[in-house]
Amino acid sequence: MMDDKVVAMLLAGGQGSRLKTLTSKIAKPAVPFGGKYRIIDYALSNATNSGIRDIGILTQYKPFLLNSHIGIGSSWDFDRTFGGLKILPPFTSEDGGRWYTGTANAIYENIDFIDNLAPEYVLILSGDHIYKMNYQHLLDVHKENNANVTISVLEVPWEDTSRFGIINVDRDKRIIEFEEKPENAKNNMASMGIYMFNWKDLREYLIKDNEDENSSNDFGKNILPKMLDDGKRMYAWVFEDYWKDVGTIRSYWEANMDLLDEKNTLNLYDRDWRIYTKNKNLPPQHIAKNSIIKNSLVNEACDVKGEVKNSVLFSNIVIEKDAKINNSVILSNCVIRSGAEVNNAVILEDITIEVGSKIGTKNDDNIYLVSDEGILIE
């Protein structure tokens, strides 16, 4: 448990439109990932493993399934009598009901919730990234630097810098400049959207930002640049482990495939840093006598009679005899009929691939998203 009073605020209302039919009915943080998890499980598990006791989940876009998954937070040990986990959707005020207008506005609208917990620090998190991080390390650096805010950053490939908010620092890692998706970046340190604030400072700037009619009410566009302009002590903490923004179909497929790489540092079998999720209470998997399974994750209630290679199978999936699955992610409750072949695909829930059907080829560079709306090629 953290010795200092830290409240985490997890932004989990994203639509994730670039994930196409994966998010047509659910929010991006609720998208299934890694065979048995949902994307939000990683931030929630990081929080509980880091010793954070109080967390607010800010929901917005199609929250029903996400809210059902989270419940009262018991799967992550947040079901406490005092504090614990609280789901914070947009609500009706004297000005009427509205959605959160930006990331900063989402926190501003819940100032009373945070004040009631009286924290010294507030940790802002995103619910749509895949990574494992001890937030205590971020807090330690924040305190050592006597900072007003500390931002977790990650070195990204130079060719990807135009997709991120880039942070320029001095030799002591003190932030001196922000570049929002620059064409020609000065360095490759990208913000991860993870911020440790002194609550007193953040509260002040949230109120000022709300009074600014020209503000986008966004951390990256408004709060952080304003604090920098005012000379606040702002530092970067460099994260050097696995992190993935699964914002596109290809990156989602790649992140699932990364789990099958023996060199990948996102170790799901680390008993000292478990990734927790809601248990479905399903029966064991069944692997038939003449089936072939190589380098794959096969989860509960699967019945495999065919061939599965380098793939991730979620729960309650049927792979019939002579069916072949390669380099694919198959979500729950799917049936792959006899003689069908699936390559480089992401297949959504409750889909049946009929007898003899063929999707992609082994050496194909395309990714195939299969849903009840058809096949989308990425």
From TrEMBL:
GO molecular function: ATP binding; glucose-1-phosphate adenylyltransferase activity
Keyword Nucleotidyltransferase: yes
Site (Could play a key role in the communication between the regulatory and the substrate sites) residue list: Q60, W99
Pathway, per record: Glycan biosynthesis; glycogen biosynthesis
Highest taxon above the source species: Bacteria
InterPro entries assigned to the protein according to its UniProt record, in alphabetical order: ADP-Glc_PPase, ADP_Glu_pyroP_CS, GlgC_bac, GlmU/GlgC-like_hexapep, NTP_transferase_dom, Nucleotide-diphossugar_trans, Trimer_LpxA-like_sf
Domain Nucleotidyl transferase: from-to ranges: 8-261
A Pfam cross-reference name: NTP_transferase
Ranges of residues in domain Glucose-1-phosphate adenylyltransferase/Bifunctional protein GlmU-like C-terminal hexapeptide: 289-376
Reactions catalysed: alpha-D-glucose 1-phosphate + ATP + H(+) = ADP-alpha-D-glucose + diphosphate
Keywords: ATP-binding, Carbohydrate metabolism, Glycogen biosynthesis, Glycogen metabolism, Nucleotide-binding, Nucleotidyltransferase, Transferase
NCBIfam families reported for this sequence: glgC (TIGR02091), PRK05293.1 (NF003670)
Assigned protein family: Belongs to the bacterial/plant glucose-1-phosphate adenylyltransferase family.
Record note on quaternary structure: Homotetramer.
HAMAP family, per database record: GlgC
Protein's name according to its UniProt entry: Glucose-1-phosphate adenylyltransferase
Native species: Anaeromonas frigoriresistens
